[in-house]
Amino acid sequence: MNVNLFIIAGSLLAVTGCQTLQSTEPQSDNDQHSVAIKAKSKKSATVTLDEIEEQVAEVNNLWLRISNKMQLPVTDNALVAQYRQWYLDNPKHLEIVTQRAGPFLYYIVEQLEARKLPIELALLPIVESGFDPLAYSSGHASGLWQLTPPTAQSFGVKTNWWYDGRQDVASSTKAALDLLQYLYPKMDNNWFYTIAAYNSGEGRVLNAVKHNQNRGKPADFWSLSLPKETAHYVPQLLALADVIKHADKYGITLTPIANSPQIEVVNIESQLDINLAADLAQIDIVDLKAINPGLKRWATAPQGPHQLVVPSDKAASFKRALATVEPDSRINWVRYKIKSGDSISRIADQFETTATLIRSSNGIKGNNIVAGRFLIIPVAAKDPDLATMTADQILARKAVIKSSPNKQAYTIKSGDSLWKIAQSQQVSVAQLMKWNNLKQQSTLSVGKNLVIYPNEVAVNNATKEKTVNYRVQSGDSLARIATKYNVTVAELIEWNSLQNSKLIQPGQILKLIVTNS
């Protein structure tokens, strides 16, 4: 038992002790209520440590927080029973879903509670997408909440060359909850109707209700004639809620999820190279992409939304580091001389950017460009292909890992996820995946060991390190130089003993350690 638990136990016993103090004054009839309170307090003073542990677990486990606040009635229905049995027969599914939900579920629960919406709605992404933010349906729905393009557009979710807000957790969650709040009053304040309408549209559900009412038939959800998918949609959600609420009763062990923030949505104010963002947040690009699945390219969208999701424990340091980056250093730029036969679209394809951004960056309104003149082109600081690859593809392209001799074994505990283990061991999810030959969808088995190399060194036999002396130019910043040479600002500071002063001057010589093919 940890120290915090003893502190909580002591506090509870101290409070109940104060309430059970005996009074020497005679009691009147009006004091009977006080006597009842004292008697109840005296009984509560006998709370056991096991009960206290259970209360602490309840506070720390997000699943328990969710189950304790469930309110939608679970109907004794054949479809509900069918889906309940499916979940009970397939516990591996809930394990995988829990692992995917780990970084995002707390955020979604907080958004629901802020709007006073049913907590069961936090489970809709399980039904919709298996909590996979990259899920895509044959009907062109995408993301955790499976928003279709028309729905996304109606609720202000941006989708363009740079960004798909349907796959962005913050944007899609806002849109999904906006849609549910819009539907609820239209569905006669009936949550079963509302959830069904989320699946198949308000018109279809309202028509089914009116059809029954006009014929004098019952118009509750279970009596409606709806498409098969919709008729099964509400029972599936209710069955899932029932399994989670009564996991002990059904013999299901839910992997705990921490009841604390895992991510924070940061206002970055303007476009930002995501490789630079990963350096500033001091996390691996794979980890940054995993919690920002809506980013499709090497940078955030030029016209916004100007937000980035970072791990909650990195948010404060990320904001401080970002504040030191000059606005014109957030994106790398090259000066390109226009060649005969060039077009803006061809140049955009060459540099992995858009014609629109080239036009806006150079004050061009049409498509006319003149050979021999120069364009300023925004480009990726590192390999732009990384932004469009899956985590596994990125890992496959990474340098060979030379393991530290300080090999360690980590035993997987109940409630662990790759994300949680990486945070506790101060390594990245990408490293854990590489060392242990795992994929993002891999399920962790309690009791098994993971290999960890706390002092790994990434090397590539085909490359060699060399020292470069760089003369600072007018307009340079540490961030700009770091981006140009694929190093970090922290490394520049360390190599050049700049801890006491991060200011650099034109003409100053900086030492850089870079790798060449």
Using brief descriptors, characterize the structure shown.
mainly alpha; globular; two-stranded antiparallel sheet; disordered N terminus; 517 residues; 24 helices; single chain; 10 strands; 10% strand
Write the layout of secondary structure elements.
Layout: H1 3-19, H2 32-44, H3 49-60, H4 62-68, H5 78-89, H6 91-101, H7 105-115, H8 124-129, H9 149-154, H10 169-186, H11 191-200, H12 202-214, H13 228-245, H14 247-250, E1 263-267, H15 274-281, H16 285-291, E2 307-311, H17 315-323, E3 332-337, H18 344-350, H19 355-362, E4 374-379, H20 391-397, E5 401-402, E6 408-411, H21 418-425, H22 429-436, E7 449-452, E8 457-458, E9 464-471, H23 478-484, H24 489-495, E10 509-516
Antiparallel strand pairs: 1-2, 3-4, 5-8, 6-7, 9-10
Helix pairs in contact: 3-4, 5-13, 7-10, 10-11, 11-12, 11-13, 15-16, 21-22, 23-24
Protein model, in words:
With 517 residues, the protein is mainly alpha-helical. 45% of the residues lie in helices and 10% in strands. The chain has 24 helices and 10 strands. Strands 1-2 form a two-stranded antiparallel sheet. α5 packs across α13. It starts with a helix and ends with a strand. The model is unreliable at 1-45, 386-405 and 457-464 (pLDDT under 50).
Share of residues in helices: 40-55%
Shape: globular
Q: Supply the helix-strand structural class.
A: mainly alpha
Order of strands, widest sheet:
1-2
Cα gyration radius (Å) = 28 Å
Number of strands: 10
- Are there runs of 5+ residues with pLDDT below 50, and where? 1-45, 386-405, 457-464
Count of DSSP-assigned helices: 24
